[in-house]
Amino acid sequence: MRVVVMAGGSGTRLRPLTCDLPKPMVPVVNRPIAEHILNLLRRHNLDDVVMTLHYLPDVVRDYFGDGNEFGVHLSYVVEEEQPLGTAGSVKNIVNLLTDPFLVVSGDSITDVDLTDALRFHQQHGAPVTLILARVPQPKEFGIVFTDSDGRVRRFLEKPSAAEVFTDTVNTGIYILNPTVMDYLNSGIERDFSRDLFPLLLQADVPMYGYITDAYWCDVGSLQTYQQVQQDALYGRVHLEIQGHEVQPQIWVGHNTPLPPTVQLQAPLVLGNNCRLGAGVTLGPGTVLGDNVMIGNGSRLRSVVAWNGCFIGDDSELEHCILARHVHVDRHVTLQEGVIIGSRCVVREEASLSQGVRIWPGKRIEAGAIVNQSLIWGTTGQRYLFGQRGVAGVANVDITPEFAVRLAAAYASILEPGTSVLVSRDQRNVSRMVSHALMSGLMSVGIHVLNLEAIALPIARFAAQTLSVSGGIHVRAHPDRADQLLIEFFDHKGINLSRAKERQIETAYFREEIRRALLTDVGVMTHPNNCVAAYAQGFEKWLNTQLFYGSPAKIVIDYAYAVSGVVLPQILSKFGCDAVVLNATLHPTPLNILERQRLLRELGQVVTALSASLGVQVSANGERLTLVDNAGQVFSDQELTALMTYLTLLTHPGGTVVVPVTTSSAVEAIARQQGGHIIRSRTNPTDLMEACQHQSGVVLGGSAETGFIFPQLHPGFDAMFTIATLIELLALIGKPLTVIRQELPRVHYYHRPIRCPWLAKGSLMRHLVETHPRNHLSLIDGVKIGEPNTDHWVLILPDASEPLVHLYVNSPDALWSQQMLQRYSRRIEAFARLEPLSDATIKM
């Protein structure tokens, strides 16, 4: 059988190690990753190998030659002009593949039993077999769900936390019949996971998954690179380690003497021709390549030093990586997580702080204290964006210097000379960070429209009218009083897609930031008609005559937020009788106890004034809490049901988009009013996009997120929600207490349950595997329901915390209580990593 080894990767996430080295040539225990793959193939009598190359192909060819030295026959195909992707590169050589063939990723370490996998493929006789593995954190990979016979039923590439429905992932090793490549066109970049396999699933082509318990690790980051070294040293994966095992788990290469004063602590590997000075201590996890020299008295622990490195006297290195020919002078300290690219020089008594990365060819002067990565910046985080945007502790995680670089990274993916609007809430820290963001934008040649302190819905509305490429808004986090939230949206006011967020993250972490010439630095302007334009939008989409003729009196608590500056002007223009509370700006966000106190006071004022309703505005004008005419607070689910009821009553046949977590009251209302309900993922971006792309949408969102009115703008808007409530109540002519009694009764519970990250994927897989397929919905998390009823249970992994959220919904109180207890126990057992029965769960 012919084997295709895909070895064209550039390994951008392994930089600075791969700045001048292809990823498959990165050494693990002193042998390139690709060599370990060839050794695995040879052990299973697979010696006819084709390597596909793209990035620095000569490095690979010069090392492996024709393959005879490694026990295989090796040929190469180089993608000269552009990378074709995993599937595209194989399609490019399909004329060489006349029989079933094996595809192996060139950047992973594994000891999978290929002989047994080939036997599995032959037994099932399908055109495709995927070799799968189970991992504790599957969202980093393509997840694959197979049925009891091993047939692949669902495939999702790099899911979000809430989309994880199994812990079984694609290893990048496949057994294929050449005929499946007919589904792809030649010369086009295509990926197995994103393109070919979905096509095959759609065409109902049989694909099977061989699930291995063997070791497998995708060396996709510097963290996993360090981990795979440790796994090899501790014998967790079977690799061929060069050298003689002089003591258990201590391998020493040819011509490497061991002075009597050297202390060696297993496990470790020393390459050929190494020289160790007197009193050297090499701690567990250390791997030294060939021709490495260590000076007297130096101490290394869990250090990976590639060929040709020099470390001077009395230096201390811990948990760090040195690429080829790095020169470290005496009395140098390298702290945990330091990564140094090839040919760098670190002069004596220099100190590199934790996590610092140095790109190739740099020079650190004597005595320097380096606490930031040189040239390319720090990469302490892997991801910047969370569920809603970029969040972090104010002036700790979200600092001015961070904001400058973040904005510059964003600006670098935009066309030079375009414009971006920047807005914020009234907090002093938000002003500081927004100024830093504007500096970063202008430094890359992007013009800034500074809206200053303004409610977020107005900023989204302005994005549609000001001819901008996008916008940035800074505000106190709506759910975390100590955090700031930076949100990015496009020219329509919709939050950026995950693909755009990844582009920003790539530019940020790799420092691929464009710099403008002096004459091209961006210009800042201050648009002054945004509030007036927003008010005109209000007037266009409301029946303002109902306001003038309505006897309704409302009480609005702005909770000292910026929306209090805007909304009174709009309501007074429409002649609305509104009593305003707490409309002055407060420089610090309120905590939850302060908000609850204000909410109690709001209810008291509503009853004292015999008002029609009261509202408390939050989340910088996006969300609200409603109080009825008796001073009673609406729950989030009641408010969502109320808005659905009022909207469909006045828009018969309309469509309402709600998150998957919303209670079934909305479906009951839609059945009564002849409307339609579309369920969306809980991510705010998905809600916004669904409201824009689905036809006939008259309302979107929920009380937890805020409500969307697509005709006005695509974002959440508490201010327009208030105006719409006044309009609809005036039209219907009933008080809120009466309407509240008309809403469907649903027994709905939400319980967050702690669950380790390591258990989330296996929990989702267990739930999918132990329920009938016709009971499952996988829009977001795993939703289990009885067909043709409103009984359901939803288990939704939290995107940023070690939690899963359990939602139970039913018109039957006893059913809801039983399911809440039953699923709570099951999730808590998984959280303790206890084994569970695979028996099908009866609802």
Automatic annotation (TrEMBL):
Record key words, sorted: Cytoplasm, Initiation factor, Phosphoprotein, Protein biosynthesis
Classification via InterPro entries: A-D-PHexomutase_a/b/a-I, A-D-PHexomutase_a/b/a-I/II/III, A-D-PHexomutase_a/b/a-II, A-D-PHexomutase_a/b/a-III, A-D-PHexomutase_C_sf, LbH_EIF2B3/5, Mannose-1P_guanyltransferase, NTP_transferase_dom
Nucleotidyl transferase domain location: 3-232
Alpha-D-phosphohexomutase alpha/beta/alpha domain location: 384-512, 533-631, 636-744
One Pfam family this sequence matches: NTP_transferase
Domain EIF2B subunit epsilon/gamma LbH intervals: 250-351
A cellular component annotation (GO) from this entry: carboxysome
One Gene Ontology biological process: carbohydrate metabolic process
UniProt similarity note: Belongs to the phosphohexose mutase family.
Name assigned to this protein: Mannose-1-phosphate guanyltransferase
Species of origin: Thermosynechococcus vestitus (strain NIES-2133 / IAM M-273 / BP-1)
Upper lineage: Bacteria, Bacillati, Cyanobacteriota, Cyanophyceae, Acaryochloridales
